[in-house]
């Protein structure tokens, strides 16, 4: 009997057969999944389906399992890039090892190595999640039931939230570096990021059809938490968008993610090298995601309440919003002074 399940943006069709392996396939639309299931069921009824040998066994190489997972599961996820990167690293480590040999001790050794290399608790948990999902796939796609090596391993405690603020002086230096190296797209992206608080992926996937310059709004259809939201445009962000070339149906920022990473690293290194003041160099540990933290903190300093902040940031819980909001002492003092 066929069943269709929606997983993220994809549809998984499954045909369960008594005494035989389950047949599965993933499609981009429900209609494609239904068509595949109906055709296969018809072949099964007529007895013309050619039975294939089981694609996997306990001795299957981790490399083959991981590559299948990337091609059939990761590709449909919003975190496809990061999850694929994790699997590529795991393939280098366990590529030729049979999936049945991946056990708890292997995972603990991986955890300890990641910790020694300075990786954060959140990153290690992402590795745990990827490994666990792969073993769930082995059972779900191919009925290959193996002990999940993540079972019984405690997840790492959440990393402490970053409290770094981007000062107006730092922002000015970064934008001047964009001008120096003739990087107008990066300059516009940084301004929009620090004015709207959008995530990098949301900014990069923004299309002109999602921009309403008249009513000063951006429409985000695909977000990290799966809920669409509207972003109000500040006067500065509105001016920045009006300066860009508008291509009907095109992306607002026609730049690849790799180019963005390289360009941001270039101006960060330049600002780090140009820092002449004493004390800790504020550009040394600067990340692109810090612009989202700074944007939400500035909105908080401007007096927006938690409901208004969450509507803009997309955070569902106060706990997550607090990790991103770092009110300045000046803003707090100003409010305290009103009551004196």
User: Structural class given helices, strands, pairing?
Assistant: mainly alpha
Number of domains: 3
Largest sheet: 3 strands, antiparallel
Oligomer: single chain
How does this structure look, described?
The protein has 3 domains: 1-51; 55-153, DNA polymerase, domain 1; 168-338, Intergrase catalytic core (hpI Integrase, Chain A), CATH 1.10.443.10. The protein is mainly α and 340 residues long. The chain is globular and about 80 Å long. Strand 5 and strand 6 (229-232) form a beta hairpin. The chain has helices at 30-46, 62-72, 80-94, 104-116, 121-142, 168-180, 184-196, 200-204, 235-242, 257-274, 290-301, 306-313, 318-324, 329-338; strands at residues 2-7, 10-15, 23-27, 211-212, 217-220, 229-232. The chain has a 3-stranded antiparallel β-sheet with strand order 1-2-3, covered by helices on one side. A 3-stranded antiparallel β-sheet has the order 4-5-6. Helix 2 packs antiparallel against helix 3 (80-94), helix 6 crosses helix 10 (257-274) and helix 7 (184-196) crosses helix 11. 51% of the residues lie in helices and 8% in strands.
């Amino acid at each position: 009997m066929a069943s269709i399940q929606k997983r993220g943006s994809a549809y998984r069709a499954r045909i369960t057969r008594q005494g035989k392996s389950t047949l599965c396939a993933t499609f981009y639309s429900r209609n494609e999944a239904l068509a595949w299931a109906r055709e296969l069921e018809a072949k099964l009824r007529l007895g013309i389906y050619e039975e294939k040998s089981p694609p996997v066994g306990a001795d299957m190489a981790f490399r083959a399992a991981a590559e299948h997972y990337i091609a059939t599961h990761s590709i449909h996820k919003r975190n496809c890039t990061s999850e694929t990167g994790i699997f590529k690293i795991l393939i280098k480590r366990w590529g030729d090892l049979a999936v049945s040999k991946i056990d708890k001790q292997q995972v603990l050794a991986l955890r300890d190595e990641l910790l020694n290399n300075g990786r954060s608790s959140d990153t290690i948990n992402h590795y745990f999640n990827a490994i666990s999902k792969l073993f769930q796939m082995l059972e779900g796609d191919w009925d290959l039931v193996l002990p999940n090596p993540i079972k019984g391993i405690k997840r790492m405690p959440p990393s402490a939230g970053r409290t770094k603020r981007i000062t107006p002086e730092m922002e000015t230096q970064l934008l001047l570096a964009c001008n120096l190296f003739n990087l107008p797209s990066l300059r516009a992206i940084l301004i929009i990021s620090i004015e709207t608080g959008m995530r990098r992926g949301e900014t990069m996937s923004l299309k002109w059809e999602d921009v309403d310059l008249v009513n000063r709004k951006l429409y985000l259809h695909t977000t990290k938490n799966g809920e669409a939201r509207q972003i109000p445009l500040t006067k500065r962000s509105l001016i920045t968008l009006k300066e860009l070339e508008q291509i009907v149906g095109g992306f607002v920022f026609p730049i690849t993610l790799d180019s963005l990473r390289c360009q941001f690293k270039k101006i960060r290194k330049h600002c780090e090298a140009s820092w002449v003041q004493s004390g800790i160099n504020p550009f040394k540990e600067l990340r692109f995601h810090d612009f989202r933290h700074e944007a939400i903190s500035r909105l908080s300093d401007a007096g927006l309440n938690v409901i208004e902040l969450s509507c803009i940031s997309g955070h569902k819980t106060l706990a997550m919003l607090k990790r991103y909001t770092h009110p300045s002492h000046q803003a707090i003092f100003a409010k305290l002074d009103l009551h004196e």
